[in-house]
Every structure is written in structure tokens, then in C-alpha cells.
Amino acid sequence: MAAVDSLRTLVLIKPDGVARSKVGQIISRFEDKGLKVVAMKLMRLDRPRAERHYAVHKGKPFYDSLLNYITSSPLVAMVVEGNNSIEIVRKLVGATNGAKAEPGTIRGDYSTGIDFNLIHASDSEESANYEIPIFFEEKEILSYERADKDWL
Ligand code: CMP
């Protein structure tokens, strides 16, 4: 059987996802697909870290409201690992704007717009390598095997 690879991606269940009690349902989607959560924390993001995380959006019209939103109340940060994790997680998450995201995707099922879109996921390996250390030290990312790993 093919080996399960260990490509990692950063996922944030944003303040609206936590406040709307969607954490369990969102994590289930990744677990059901065959991916593995290898690090996770509930945290209130501070402004400096939010600025680092969203540095690419600095200067855009939505930048200030984005920072206010992401720092407004607790979020859940996770590292998700597995075969093609970056591409698969982005597909499960859906288009940025919940109004345009396909039904069946997380944003398509739970979000009606772009301002509160519940979730963030790294869009490339380069982004994941930049974003993960903003939230986790290497020692906080754990190693374990899924019991069904040979079937994934
Ligand atoms: P996210 O995937 O976290 O990446 C940047 C975030 O900015 C995006 O999700 C939205 O929450 C937010 N945002 C608000 N307006 C826009 C916009 N016009 N284009 C892209 N992202 C936006």
C-alpha cells in the first residue's frame, strides 16, 4: 500500500467558527477525509501575531477589519497532516467567499459572505512553512499513527 505522507498545513477555525460552536464539525471533516490533526490549541490571537500571519494582505481595504475580526475572540489553531493535505484541506474549506463556496464545503455550508468565513487554510507549501511557526513551536507538533493509516 502507498505510504501516507506527512505534508503539513495550518488551519485556523476563526472566532466565528468557535463562537458558533462549529469546532467539532469542522475537525470531523478533516478526520473523516483521512487527515490527521498533529497540533491544536484554543487561543486568543494577539495583534502582532495576527499582523505576521496576514502580512500579505497589509494595505488591502479589508486589512484592518480582518485584524479586528481575527483578534476579537478565541480561535482554534491546528496543524493538519497527511497525503496532499494542503490541496485537500483547501478543497474541503471551499472558496473564500461563503456566498460563492460550493455546498458541501465548510464555507459553503456555514458561511454567507467573505467577512466571516469561519476558517483559514494555508494556500501553498510556502505559506504553510511561513504560517505554522507563527502558531506552533516544532515540539508542539506531535507524531502518532492513525489506526487506519494503511487504508488511507
Ligand atoms: P483567509 O483565507 O483567512 O485569508 C484572508 C482573509 O481576509 C479571508 O480569509 C477573509 O476572511 C478576509 N477577507 C475579507 N475581505 C476579503 C477580500 N475582498 N478578499 C480576500 N479576503 C478577504
Q: State the name of the first-level CATH class.
A: Alpha Beta
Could you spell the SSE succession in H and E letters? EHHEHHEHHEH
Main beta-sheet annotation: 4 strands, antiparallel
Architecture, CATH level 2?
2-Layer Sandwich
The percent range for helix content is 25-40%
Overall pLDDT = 96
Which ligands are bound? adenosine-3',5'-cyclic-monophosphate
Radius of gyration: 15 Å
Q: Gist?
A:
The chain has 152 residues and is an alpha+beta fold. It has helices spanning 15-19, 23-33, 47-53, 63-70, 85-93, 106-110, 125-135; strands at 8-13, 36-43, 75-81, 119-121. The chain has a single domain (7-139), classed as Alpha-Beta Plaits, CATH 3.30.70.
Structure description:
- The protein is of the alpha+beta class and 152 residues long.
- It has a single domain, classed as 2-Layer Sandwich (Alpha-Beta Plaits), CATH 3.30.70.
- It is 37% helix and 16% strand.
- The chain contains seven helices and four strands.
- The chain has helices at 15-19, 23-33, 47-53, 63-70, 85-93, 106-110, 125-135; strands at 8-13, 36-43, 75-81, 119-121.
- Strands 2-3-1-4 form a four-stranded antiparallel beta sheet.
- The radius of gyration is 15 Å and the shape is globular.
- The N and C termini lie close together (9 Å).
- It binds adenosine-3',5'-cyclic-monophosphate (CMP).
- Residues 57, 62, 66, 96, 114-115, 117, 120 line the site of adenosine-3',5'-cyclic-monophosphate (CMP).
